[in-house]
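Students often ask why we bother encoding 3D structure as a string. The short answer is that it lets us treat folding as translation between two languages. Here is a chain of 166 residues written in the first language.
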Amino acid sequence: MIYLCGSLRNPEIPVIANHLRSITDEEIFDDWFAAGPEADDSWRDYERARGHSLAQALRGHAARHVFDFDTTHLNRSLMVVLVLPAGRSGHLELGYAMGLVKTTGVLLAGEPDRYDVMYQFADHVWETPEEMYNSIVTTDPVYANGAYTCKRCGAVNAIGEICDCI
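And here it is in the second language, the structure alphabet:
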């Protein structure tokens, strides 16, 4: 499964996801986008109206459910792609995926307003969606023969299976 992360305000997320679905049999996860562009702002405003700080809001049921939803799908993914522009959440998700030794990529999708050397942590950095599509479909060995090789321990696991070393 390929998990796309990025901004709720980036209308290209479903476009990219739909194109990936048309060229690969892999499940593409972008369901988080359904919350809409104002989801984080609405949650913040609701919690402030209740008199809650961010730290208090993070302990609430709504935050816990959204976090568990995203984390469940990040855990079951084999590849995580950060689509720019993206905010803190997308970058944290990419870092989390790197910590789990998943295959990762950053789609620049145009000239970024700021350069950042830390994108070199990712396995792939693509300048265009087309470059990413070609890389995923034709060159990434993670999906070969219904199995993948864990980058951490070298074990061969079935697609969708989390390696025992994690």
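Translate back mentally: DSSP finds six helices and seven strands in the chain. Keep this in mind for the problem set.
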